[in-house]
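Model: You mentioned two targets. I'll fold them one after the other.
Researcher: Yes, keep them separate.
Model: Target one:
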Amino acid sequence: QAQVQESGGGLAQAGESLRLSCTASGNIISTNDVDWYRQAPGLQRELVARITAGGATNVADSVKGRFTISRDNAKNTVYLQMNSLKPEDTAVYYCHTLFHDGEWYDTWGRGTQVTVSS
């Protein structure tokens, strides 16, 4: 079963930028909708951004104008560019996709920690 893997998290100061990457084996990243979720301590996991198989994108109101989701099909990678980071962006960020390969697979990465200091 194909899996997704996140990278690029770390520590940033408020106002700085980070770029997260989501990769996977095969072509599931380039042929399916891919989401970025995040979960802060004590809070529910929330959808941050989505890119559809066709390339349409959507981001949550809380990050609109600061975060951008994109995909490089040649690299089978989805990116989350995070600019003007705020302390409230601190969370574990997860990549997610749902793909069909004989049956449906709801696939989550293990997450990458993003910590923003003020």
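Model: Target two:
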Amino acid sequence: QVQLVESGGGLVQPGGSLRLSCVASGSISSIDNMGWYRQAPGKQRELVATETDDGSTNYRASVKGRFTISRDGAKNSVYLQMNSLKPEDTAVYYCNAGFGGFVVAWGQGTQVTVSS
């Protein structure tokens, strides 16, 4: 099994920055991609960004140029640097680990609130 623990959420003003972190433990060898999803109140969970073990990244259009996903060399952590935050980025952000097209684990979620 894989366990994911997130940190780094909080309250930030529009235009500000936050960095989310997620550390995986357990059967790390069973995953080949990690990423971030988010869910705003009343909305479905949506993909924010993902990165595979070979370094390929994928971003949702609305965050391109503002958010950057990265992973550590050991491939057991994933980060999301969020710049130029907007109120519409407000959501609970979830770390995700997968193998191929299958979800292996979800984190518990961390709240990001963008408000003045």
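Researcher: Noted. Anything on target two?
Model: The mean pLDDT is 95.
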